[in-house]
Amino acid sequence: MTLPKAVAFAHWMIAQNIRPGDTVIDATCGNGGDTVFLAEAVSPAGHVHAFDIQSEAIQATYARLKKESLEPHVTLHHCSHDYAVSVLTEAERTSVRAAVFNLGYLPGSDKQIVTSASSTTAAVLSYLHTFPPGVPVIVVIYHGHPGGNAERTAVENLAAELSEQEVRVLRYSLEFQEKAPPYVLTFEKTGEESPHLSN
Ligand code: SAM
């Protein structure tokens, strides 16, 4: 057995949860690695909604999808992931089966443009509030870059504040590594009465 790294573990978790025909969210499409993985998993009948604030990322993802003839199965949204809930239709919101965030900067691009604590936590909370119980909201957390630690702390604080009756949180982390490797927090709404999330 080889313990998977964070992204491979996130993909494994997603694969357990989705099938062809599902609707899924890629909250940070970047260079399109996750988007292609998701599009392959839900096509031909399903759909991926992918978000990024950088036009460079949207273009890179489109090019990658086109190469694989997967672009009909994806809508690329050039906006922040905390707008996801408002750009989906009611039917799409109820059919979402997984959401994934890959935090940090766009590899090979401007390292100053990174995901932020405020939009990441706002997006995670809105997804938990809106999507059906049992939908994993998977966050791959990078914390080695400037700002990464603050974002990681904010996501962990959110996890700690949520009631365990409403939301379960799974951490997957390779420990005792020399560098600070990325790790995964998966949030899952339980479906129990949720005063926090229903606000
Ligand atoms: N998932 C990507 C892949 O497989 O190639 C990698 C994502 S990269 C680590 C992080 C991306 O998040 C960057 O492309 C960055 O532009 C994007 N980003 C930063 N803030 C964002 C926001 N508020 N909403 C959506 N995307 C954002």
UniProtKB/TrEMBL annotation:
Spell out the molecular function terms from Gene Ontology.
methyltransferase activity
InterPro entries reported for this sequence = MnmM_MeTrfase (IPR010719), SAM-dependent_MTases_sf (IPR029063)
GO terms in the biological process aspect are: methylation
CDD domains according to UniProt: AdoMet_MTases
Keyword tags: Methyltransferase, Transferase
Keyword flag Transferase: yes
Transferase as a keyword? yes
What name is this protein filed under?
Putative rRNA methylase
The root-end lineage is: Bacteria, Bacillati, Bacillota, Bacilli, Bacillales
